Amino acid sequence: MSLIKIVLTEDHKIVRSGIRSLLENEVDIEIVGEACNGNELLELFESGTINPNEVLLITDINMPGINGIDMIPGLLEAYPKLKTVVLSMLSHEKYVLKAFQSGANGYMLKNVSSEELLFGIRHIFNNGQRYLCTELSIELLDRQLGRSYATTDDLPVVDLSKREKEILSLIAEGYTNQEIADKIFTSKRTVEGHRQNLIDKTQSRNSAALIRYAVLRGMVS
Amino acid sequence: MSLIKIVLTEDHKIVRSGIRSLLENEVDIEIVGEACNGNELLELFESGTINPNEVLLITDINMPGINGIDMIPGLLEAYPKLKTVVLSMLSHEKYVLKAFQSGANGYMLKNVSSEELLFGIRHIFNNGQRYLCTELSIELLDRQLGRSYATTDDLPVVDLSKREKEILSLIAEGYTNQEIADKIFTSKRTVEGHRQNLIDKTQSRNSAALIRYAVLRGMVS
DNA sequence: TACGAAACCCGTATTAATACCTGATTATTA
DNA sequence: TAATAATCAGGTATTAATACGGGTTTCGTA
């Protein structure tokens, strides 16, 4: 197990110090540089103080100037062996996806435990694999579980007539009863009746809940 | 950090011994029992040798008799505080999903590193959270990355405020504006405003279309 | 400090949806 | 053949949602 050299980019001094002191306790980790934004980081790299091809960069997203994710592609172009971990309080999926699309090797929320931070760092540096913190992993998993309700048989699955499915799709697309009636050449009242049946069958409270039920079960897409 | 008591269920003796010797090196972990299938495990529990409400069960899937995942719901019914980790060589998503749906607290592939096995065990036992091994997490993530390439092209991406997400979820559950207002202690008119913003932002025609949009993007589940 | 974004609030008017009810026709199937 | 389900259609009433318009306060940040 080789020595892990780390560079920190984070605009809040206190956060930086906290992470530094946490990592410094580990015998296999050394902090070789700190920067409070992307420009300072570039100076560190370009001045030759640090060899970017053998370090792990831990970076925040929100910082003055360029943000932590957006600077990754440029860094990787210049220093292909640089490894990067995004450490952020932003849990929205779009940041996670964008980080990995930009070439990050890891993404962790700022509320990870110190054990997990260390585990993730070592996982990335020693095994060369990517890492996503458990909180976000479980969030992803839960979303997948939600999606797969369609295929599980523990929840009551209703079966709909052809007409009902047709109308369900149109409701999901946002058409009103009158518009649907015009489309399928029947009366508004008939469509209203079908809509009510759909709501009753799925035990939903209204159309919004009906559509949630339907999409989660793959009845419409 | 309390002592982690572990019961192992695994039909291959050599694998069991390997895991045992690995875990026994840790000061905070104790192996209190072993079984080579579900029946033996039940005997251990029912004989009173082990208190199932304070242990972590690590189980394989494929075993003679009942499989490791299928026995979890019954175990949890009898011993609600039992924590379970599925340790299997099966990486197919359907096993992972089924394990968590059955109430497992963790799922790890048999090729995890010892560090990860320990990390996962401690994460589950000490923090009470679920754990999915990194290899599978990254696999999930990649699938999500693939999906987002496919879906973000044809449909507009919006980002919502915290409040909007909160209200969006409640709409998806079928609550009316008045009910939502009561729940989040604000006025019905405010909720109406938020609902309208959600519809506008997502370029939906009404609440039904809004919910379809939201569910398809995993904004609600 | 000036700005935008978010959250909050309100009025008015119209349209749509929901919740009950009724009954007829057709097709399937037990 | 009798029963059942699906489809269609209508009546009536109430409630909810939508679409405009107007506004304030607060907070983070440029």
From TrEMBL, chains A, B:
Record-linked InterPro entries: CheY-like_superfamily, NreC/VraR/RcsB-like_REC, Sig_transdc_resp-reg_C-effctor, Sig_transdc_resp-reg_receiver, Tscrpt_reg_LuxR_C, WalR-like
Organism superkingdom: Bacteria
Keywords per UniProt: DNA-binding, Phosphoprotein
Coiled-coil positions: none
Residues in HTH luxR-type domain copies: 153-218
Response regulatory domain segment(s): 5-125
UniProt cross-references to SMART domains, sorted A to Z: HTH_LUXR, REC
UniProt-recorded Gene Ontology molecular function terms: DNA binding
Pfam families for the chain: GerE (PF00196), Response_reg (PF00072)
Membrane-traversing stretches: none
Biological process per Gene Ontology, one example term: phosphorelay signal transduction system
Residues annotated with 4-aspartylphosphate modification: D60
SUPFAM superfamilies tied to this protein: C-terminal effector domain of the bipartite response regulators, CheY-like
Keyword DNA-binding among UniProt keywords: yes
Protein name, as recorded: Two component transcriptional regulator, LuxR family
Source organism (scientific name): Daejeonella lutea
